[in-house]
Recover the amino acids of this structure.
């Protein structure tokens, strides 16, 4: 692989939860050991849905960055930056918007899906329709060779590839067409059995206290067909048991399954074991996060240094773009 540069970003929605860790951060930790990684806080993307109230975006960006750093995203190995601090993203977005057919944007599967799911917000804006163009700018302004995505995100990346291809056709070869780097993203269930999500109110946050985590785990839904402690249970029907597949050893899981199915262990006892395993897993992260939070200047410096490096790299590309379009 000649081009080992990767670009990936997250919208700042505040503190991260277990779903974010297993869906994104755990993959980033592996990627930064092998690739040249650019990881960014996509605060401009937040404006597509939060334009009416921007008061929380800055603090959400800070909280998200603390989670990244505490869990091991290393500024010595990766470029960590804020999207809005790199104006080249916006400049390229403007240029690409001039050549992107509206029909490409309207067929984006997320466009109608989000409009249906977020009916409390007015998403009939130019910015929301065109956010795939900004996403393409985020990626190709660094000439990324790979983009880590799940299978459900492949249509989004294909729009980026089409936009890069159209620019190259019109003005000459400037951008490589980024390839998908498919990543495994295990589905982490929330307290109620739905996908873990801050908007559902069913999330276990990475940065909450150990007692808060224990309380949430103890509230998780168990096997609804096991009304009494003396009834045999079925772990496959138990939402709470889903955590065991991630945080307990295979030996311990096998032991719990057998005990549950023969009513030798109750749901309360089982969830206590789950809670303690999760608290133990998160303890080093939480300690490091508290240390980082006590030194906000250090965290700001990491973002500033990364953003300057990102500006330098994006600036090289934009010089080529201006030359290609004869500006």
């Amino acid at each position: 692989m000649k081009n080992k540069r990767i670009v990936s970003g997250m919208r700042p929605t505040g503190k991260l939860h277990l779903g974010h860790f297993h869906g994104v951060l755990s993959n980033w930790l592996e990627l930064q050991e092998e690739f040249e990684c650019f990881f960014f806080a996509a605060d401009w993307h937040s404006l597509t849905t939060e334009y009416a109230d921007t008061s929380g975006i800055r603090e959400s960006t800070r909280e998200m960055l603390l989670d990244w750093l505490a869990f091991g995203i290393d500024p010595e190995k990766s470029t960590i930056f804020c999207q809005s601090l790199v104006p080249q993203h916006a400049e390229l977005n403007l240029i690409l918007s001039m050549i992107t057919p509206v029909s490409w944007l309207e067929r984006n599967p997320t466009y109608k899906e989000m409009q249906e799911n977020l009916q409390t917000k007015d998403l009939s804006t130019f910015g929301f329709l065109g956010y795939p163009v900004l996403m393409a700018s985020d990626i190709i302004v660094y000439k990324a060779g790979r983009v880590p995505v799940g299978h459900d995100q492949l249509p989004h990346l294909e729009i980026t590839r089409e936009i890069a291809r159209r620019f190259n056709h019109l003005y000459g070869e400037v951008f490589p067409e980024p390839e998908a780097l498919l990543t495994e993203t295990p589905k982490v269930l929330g307290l109620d059995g739905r996908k873990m999500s801050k908007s559902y109110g069913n999330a276990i946050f990475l940065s909450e206290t150990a007692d808060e985590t224990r309380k949430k785990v103890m509230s998780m839904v168990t096997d609804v067909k096991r009304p009494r402690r003396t009834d045999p249970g079925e772990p496959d029907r138990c939402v709470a048991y889903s955590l065991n597949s991630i945080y307990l050893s295979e030996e311990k899981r096998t032991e719990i399954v057998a005990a549950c199915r023969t009513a030798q262990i109750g749901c309360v006892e089982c969830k206590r074991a789950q809670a303690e395993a999760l608290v133990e897993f998160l303890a080093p992260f939480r300690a490091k996060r508290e240390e980082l939070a006590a030194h906000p200047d250090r965290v700001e410096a990491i973002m500033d240094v990364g953003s300057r490096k990102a500006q330098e790299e994006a600036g090289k590309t934009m010089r080529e773009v201006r030359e290609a379009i004869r500006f």
Q: What stands out?
A: The chain has two domains: 5-188+295-324, 208-289. Residues 69 and 203 are 20 Å apart (CA to CA). The longest helix spans residues 296-324. Residues 208-289 form a domain with the Tyrosyl-Transfer RNA Synthetase fold (CATH 1.10.240.10).
